[in-house]
Design goal:
mainly beta, Immunoglobulin-like, 11 strands, disordered N terminus
Length: about 110
Amino acid sequence: MSCSGWCQAQETFYFSRNPRNVDVVAGSNVTLECEVSNEVDITYYWQLNGVRLVNTTRRYQQGSHLHITRADRIRDFGEFTCIAMNVSNGFSLSSAAASLNILCECNFV
């Protein structure tokens, strides 16, 4: 069995940094990081629960990383994945999933 063009495309890059689960206090800022081994012709986007994210002032992509301001238990619930796509051949890879563990901001007296 020979390797097709898909195998060759897959070998051009891999995730060198996958996003990780993060503990964050509700209302705080957090960054999910992702990088691939070879960034030539690579574009990134993020998904939450399989739905592509659109940049907003609260949640936006900067380079390959996703910045979230004012982490919210409801709006940021689920699995975040980073998608890296080679624009020259259309091949894309999905990172390992990561979740935010959003902790309550408790004021103890």
